[in-house]
Amino acid sequence: MNAIQITGLYKQFSGKRMKKIDALKGLDLEIAPGEVFGFLGPNGAGKSTTIKLMMGLLRPTAGAAKIMGMDAGQTESRRSVGYLPENPAFYDYLGAEEYIAFVGSQFRMGKSLLARRSEEVLKRLELWDARKRPMRGYSKGMVQRVGLAQALVHDPDVYILDEPMSGLDPIGRALVKDIILDLKRRGKCVFFSTHITDDVEKVCDRVGVIVKGTLVALDRVENILRSGVEGYLIHLKMPETESFSFGGIELFRRTDSVSEYYVPCSAFNGFMGEVNRTGTDVLLVETKRRDLEDFFLALVKSAQGA
Ligand SMILES: Nc1ncnc2c1ncn2[C@@H]1O[C@H](COP(=O)(O)OP(=O)(O)OP(=O)(O)O)[C@@H](O)[C@H]1O
Ligand SMILES: [Mg+2]
Predict the structure, then answer these.
(1) In what order do the strands lie in the sheet with 229-237?
(2) What is the pLDDT of residues 58-98, one digit of tens each?
(3) Which residues of 80-119 are buried (b: 16+ CB within 10 A; e: fewer)?
(4) Which of 10, 49, 193 to probe ligand 1 with, by most ligand atoms within 8 A of CB?
(5) Separation CA 294–CA 196 (nearest Å)
(6) Which of 6, 104, 241, 274 is 20 to 30 A from 148, comparing alpha carbons?
């Protein structure tokens, strides 16, 4: 069974003067248990709409979403999910601890389990010292961390997080990435949205790119990175007097005894053959690639132009 199953999901909003907005144009997506999935897209692409449909907070115009085999929005499916909304807003006269206790009680957690889990998540999200203070005095990053704490407290199998790193400083972002990797290690499924490719590159198994309500790419992160390899910068140890050239490969820089050659993928095997034939020492091979950011920007550009 898939942890998340989305079939033909479509959402049309009525905008001003009854203008129709197709926020999501038929999404099909399957996410396995234990998988970390990054849902990448620019502003207004339809990420939050998808997530709200998955949580049963919006009704689809067509199609369906299931979580752990149950229809989105059913009480049972809700229990198996930890959800972080886009702009978490809480009863701000409560402290984080009271709020977590309130959330836990909704999931019918026993008192002692709730107390233990509450302490765990508040400490993990570095909210323990502030736990009694009313949340109205919290900074933006602290509120975001309370949002994550309440998504984690009942230890569900599936996590649906709308921009979990948003509003966090680099230390907070690293903490959230660590938490996601921990969840993965424990076999949990995490689906999160972002528009920052770096967040995806470090933690995701697969990534889907959505632009203007349509999924324009879906692949394993490693495949995207591999397909982005354009060539290699090869450092060779060479006596100063000796020159080395192969098939018109450009000589980049020559220092005292090291030469750096830029070798495109297509010339790599031939170049290395020549290196072996001449018995030249290879000091370092650096991969030169288009990163996920380049891939994402190119996709968004071409899809937005379409
Ligand atoms: N309640 C609504 N009524 C009308 N239009 C809406 C509504 N909610 C979203 N939309 C429109 O649907 C589209 C997708 O919005 P959505 O919030 O899903 O984007 P997003 O990918 O989450 O963007 P962001 O990165 O800015 O959070 C946008 O054009 C938005 O204006
Ligand atoms: Mg959004």
Answers:
(1) 251-254, 258-264, 229-237, 281-289
(2) 999 999 999 999 998 888 878 889 999 998 888 889 999 99
(3) bbbbbbeebebeeebbbbbbbbebbeeeebeeeebeebbe
(4) 49
(5) 12
(6) 6
Cβ-count burial 185-199 (b if 16+ within 10 Å, e if not): eeebbbbbbbbbbeb
Q: pLDDT tens, 139-187?
A: 999 999 999 999 999 999 999 999 999 989 999 999 999 999 999 999 9
Instruction: Report yes or no: 243 and 219 within 8 Å, Cβ to Cβ.
Output: no
Q: Check: CB of residue 152 under 8 Å from CB of residue 82.
A: yes
The pTM assigned to this predicted structure is 0.86
User: Cα angle vertex 69, ends 66, 72, to 5°?
Assistant: 30
Residues with CB under 6 A from ligand 1: 13, 15, 21, 23, 41, 43-49, 86, 195
Measured by CA distance, the residue closest to atom 24 of ligand 1 is: 43
Angle subtended by helix axes 96-106 and 111-124, to nearest 10: 130
Measured from the Cα of 210, ligand 1's closest atom is: 21
Band of the pLDDT at 254, cuts 50, 70, 90? low
Q: Please tell me the number of the ligand nearest to residue 12's CA.
A: 1
